[in-house]
Amino acid sequence: MTKWWYALMIGLTGCAESAAYQDRLAAQGLILENAPIKATAEISIAAPQTKIWGLLTNIRYWAKWQSDIAKTSIPGDPAVGTQFSWSTDRMNIHSTIQLIDPERAICWTGHVVYFRAIHCWSLSPLPAGRILVTTRESMAGWLISRFYSSRELLESDQRWLAKLKRAAEAD
Q1: pTM for this one?
Q2: Which one, of 42, 4, 51, 23, lies nearest residue 117 by Cα?
Q3: What is the pLDDT of residues 120-165, one digit of tens each?
């Protein structure tokens, strides 16, 4: 067996082991802190918490307010264990909801090829009826840092938050 095949198999085995671990982290509202790619971003939104929650959890309609998303597919309503898929212009992502704390937090894991991600959102009330929305995300997998960076992830998450704010604050 060639060395590259051996390295590939070890890499895939490591990803498989980390998948269950990442699922458990997401179920607790945590990301993979030692992931090679990670980002945290937040924004204050002047809208009811229920409206923001509805935008985040109505996965079927993400593409209507989040233009970076081309399409989504989810069977039924979001619940822990529900699998859904969504796509951007560059990739198709297969995700599983790991945590739902109504109107407070939602976390899912996702995978593309050999890359795995944890994406957690939290909503916290602020004074004057504003809501602080925080997103934390980690990405891990074989050679992922050759294809994507923490800076790119942060920029993507900041765009998502800005679009969420725009949609939530619209009449």
Answers
A1: 0.88
A2: 23
A3: 999 999 999 999 999 999 999 988 999 889 999 999 999 999 999 9
Report residue 118: phi and psi, to 5°.
Answer: -120, 130
- pLDDT value of position 7: 38
Beta-carbon contacts of residue 109 (< 8 Å; ≥ 6 apart): 19, 22, 23, 26, 95, 96, 98, 116, 117, 118, 119
The CA distance from 8 to 143, in Å, is 11
Distance CA 125, CA 44 (A): 9
What span, in angstroms and rounded, lies between the C-alpha atoms of 108 and 99? Answer: 7
3-state secondary structure of 104: coil
Task: Point out the residues of the chain with pLDDT beneath 50.
Answer: 1-17
As for how many domains the chain has, the answer is 1
Q: What is the CATH number of the domain that holds 55?
A: 3.30.530.20
Can you tell me the distance from the alpha carbon of 82 to that of 13, in angstroms, rounded to the nearest whole number?
A: 25
Q: What single DSSP character describes residue 79? A: -
Supply angle C-alpha 45, 51, 97, rounded to 5.
100
Q: Which domain holds residue 76?
A: 3-169
